[in-house]
Structures are given as C-alpha cells and as structure tokens.
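ugh finaly. both done.
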Amino acid sequence: MTAQSSSHRKPVRTAIFPVAGLGTRFLPATKATPKELLPVLDRPLIQFAIDEARAAGIERMVFVSHPSKSAIEHYVLEDPELEKTLREKGKDKMADRLCDNALDPEKVEVRFVMQDEPLGLGHAVLCAADEVLDGAVAVILPDDLILGEPGCLSEMIEAYQGADDGHMVATMQVDDQAVQSYGILSVTGRDGQVLKADGMVEKPAPEEAPSRQAVVGRYVLDGSIFEVLKTQEPGAGGEIQLTDAIARGSKELGLCGFRFTGTRFDCGSKEGMLSAILAYAGDRPEFQGVLDSATPTVLAAE
C-alpha cells in the first residue's frame, strides 16, 4: 500500500455517510424517526452533513443505512408529489426549500447500501466499498455536527491535497476524563492545523492516552482502507473499529490529524443536541427574543 504523493492526488469525490445506527440514546423519539432526521431547531442533522459534503465538491454520496430506516432515503431524495402539492397551495417558498435540500441525481450521484447488523463503524464503511469512486474517500458522521464556515470537510480536503499522509482524521482537544470516549491520536508534530501522528488508540484510559487529541466524525481516507477493513479483527465493544483499521494502514501510508476551525457538537447525546440547538438558534435573529427571555428562568432554576 502506498499513498499518492500530494502533488499527484486525485480529488476526493466520494463521501460515505454511516446512518444505520438505531439511535438508542434518543428513544422513544427514535422509535419511528431515524436519529439523523432529528431536527436541530428546524433542520435535520443529515441536512447539515449533506450540505457540508456538497460545499466540499463531493460527486457521489453513499448512505450506509438499515432496512428499518427507509425514511432517510425518502428525505434525501426529491419528492415531486409533495413539491407539486405545496405549489398548488401557494407555498412556493417551502417547495423551493425542499427542492434545494434534496439531492438532485443530475448534480450528485446517490447510492444507498444496507448494513443489516450493528457490527461497528469500520464494518459500515466497508459496506460502501463497491459504490465508491476512485481515489481517497471522505467519511461523515451526521451526529457529529460541526458548525462553521468553511465547512470541516472543505477544510480537510484542501489540507489533504497538500499533505503527504494517506489518512487524515478530524481532531479536537478534550479533557482528561473524556479520552476514554474517543479514538486518541498519537501526535508526533504539528504544521499549522495539521498534526503529524504515528498511530491512534481507541478509547484509552486517561493514564494510557498518547495525547488529548480526540478523533471526531470526519475522515479523509486513502482508498486502501477497504482492503484493510476486510481483514480487521473486532476491537473495542466487539465491533470492527474504523480507527483500528486506520492505525494499521497508517504504518505504511502515514497518518495525520486536522484541527478544524468550526465548533463540534456531539448530537448523538441529548446534551450535545441541546447545545447545538441553542447555538444554531443563537445565530438567527428571529429567535433572540426567545433565548433572552428564557435565560433568567434557567438561571433562577439553577
């Protein structure tokens, strides 16, 4: 396995969206609604991820879903009947918004593949192997919401084109007690936003963590990742861990982290989702009065 040199790299054309998880932390809300469709105020999580990929110039989006989550496919693709109904009722602005949000097959290729069993993030990425285009691939976890301009994936792809490493992972600084919830990068040096590394450790104890740089839900990976995943043994939690496969491949390809400029919210947790809603609402003037009036009540309750 040899990564392409930065001067000869093909553009990153494919993004994989692992969306097969059952969202148990949000039950009962996710009994009928996929967690990726839960709204951050009025915008579903998956819409943020799709828009981030579009802004980064992604040509093909591969959604690794579950048979029970057909609502995701319904949301992602255009719905001509609904659009027609809205326009007949004079709701042109809403119809335009739905049309803009949906993926147009003439502008971006869309693929859906199924992950029938919850065998881990590495297994989910492997499920997409037959649908990706040549070159490196991006992986976006929709419940890791990263707000900011430019988008995290746009920043990463630009940095990846100038890097010599085969794999790049998004990272952020976390405190001592949080390291056991993440894959942690073993950092050997830094060049601006790019962190040179010689490996990763999945969910280490604080005293065993090689750094405090946690890997979060954005990846740009050399195409060889799929061959590594085919032989990857189960790791933490008995699942096939993507970070384990990245670490294996990095011995020959090289590995780096990327310190993105946006703000990340763990919307797989209730606390993170609430924080994201408040932050997103805070950037919209029409909700400022609501936030201002709610603050004294919250402080009094505390």
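ok and the 2nd:
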Amino acid sequence: MRPVLFIIMSAVCFGTTGTAQAYGPQAASSSAVGLTRIVAGGALLAALAWWQGRRGQQRPTTWTRRQLGAVLLGGAAVAAYQPTFFEGARLNGVAVGAVVTLGAAPVLTGLLEWAVRRTPPTRVWFAATACAVAGVTLLSGLLEGSGQGISLRGLVGSLGAALSYAVYTLAAKHLLDEGWQPTVAVGSIFGTAAVIGAPFLLLVDLGWLATGSGIAMVLWLAVVTIVLAYVMFAIGLRSLSASTVATLTLVEPLTACVLGIALLGEQLSGIGWTGLAVLLLGVTLLARPRQRAGATA
C-alpha cells in the first residue's frame, strides 16, 4: 500500500501546479513557467542526487550503455513534454489538450511497457484506466462544449506529450530496476532535462522573476512539484508497474479541480462532479489489489 500512497501524494503535488501559476504574476507565460519549472527543479534534483551520492554512496559506480541511454532518453522526454503539451493546448484549447494528454498517457505507458518489458497490463488495470480516462474527460467539461474543429497538429502535440511521459516513466523504471536509488534516478534524468531546457530560457520573457510572487511561484514549482513530487514518484515506481503508476497519477487533475473550487472560486457542473466520482472509482480499483497483496504478505 505504501508505494500506492507515494504515487498518489506525488500526483497531489503535481496537481498544485495550476493553482501556483494562478497565484503567480500574470506576466508569466505558460511556456516560461514550464521552462523555469523544469530547469530550476531539475537542477535542484540533480544537486540533491549528487549530495546523497556523496554522503551515502548511493550513486552508481559504473554506468552501462543501457543506463546512460535511459538517462539521456528520459531527460529528453522530460524536456520534450513542455513544448508538446503547450502546442496541443494552444491549437485545440486547454480542455482538449489536457484530456488527450492525460487520457493517452496511461494507455501509451501500458502499451509501451507491454512492448518493451513484455509485461502485459492486468484486467484490473484496463478497467481502472477506462474509468480514470472517462472521469478525466467528464471532469474537463469537454462534453459540455460546443464542438470545435480539432487541429491534427495540436492532436499530435498532445499525443507527443503523452508519449514523452510514457518514455520518461519507463526510463526511470529501468534505472530503478537496475538498483539505482530513487533520488539518483530522477536526479540524473531531470538534471539532463535541465541542461537541455536551459538554453531555451533565452527565448522567453523572464522579467516577472524579479517580483516576489514570481520567486515564490518558481520555488513552489521547483521544490514541491518537481523535487518532492518526483522523489515520491520514483519511490512508488520502484515497487509498481509503470502502467499502474501512470493511471494512479490521474489523481493530478482531481487535485487541480478540488483546489480550483476551494481556492480559486471555480465552479463544477453536474457532469464534472460525475467525472470526479468516476475518476476516484478508477484510482480505487487500481489501489485495492495492492492493499490485498500487502495484507497477504
């Protein structure tokens, strides 16, 4: 049960991203926020991994080609997530972009894990993922919209973001299976992503970083939604399958919705409340087998 709780807590941290951005400076664009989040958080994670490695000898003494490939591929996937996600949201709207990305991520992770690791998802995973994806769709309010034309380029961008998430998750899982400590695994991957993303900071307006609210927002995003969230994510991922983790992290939009209602004065329709319940059902279905396994052990 503990690995499941770690993943859920990490998803709750992820879910605070939108609220933190809402309380930040209005001059901060989404692309600038995304880049600073990855670069600052990745640098902190890499520093934490280095510090733990120096103190507790947790870093690997030698890297195999597959491990180095996993770090580079995972870092590239983390860096690619931001522009692909924002491209999908820009062309098709936030609701469509988020639904496609969040809905496709667990499915692509399960299929990719099946193809790469020869680990087929369970029937419980299929049922839970179907519920969770349906819940996200209802929660987004997409079905209450007036049906707009879908941009193929935007759809490709959203699916690219989902695939980036799947690739990162499997890369981290490979390092953990190789005996890497959670902090070292995610620190190596996000440190790589920070190096990749840093030059792109020159292309966005960062004037808002000189404000108190800007600094507070970046600190929250870097420390809570990257360092704390991904360390817990890796701890849970070490004991769970990548497909299970991908579905459990759909607690993220649930958290974002609750915070939006409680702190930002947002409203939720009847269909939205139904989506909230269906999403919770999917997460509960996936958590229960682990509880039983733990009790049996």
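summary for the 2nd one i guess: Confidence is low (pLDDT under 50) at residues 289-297.
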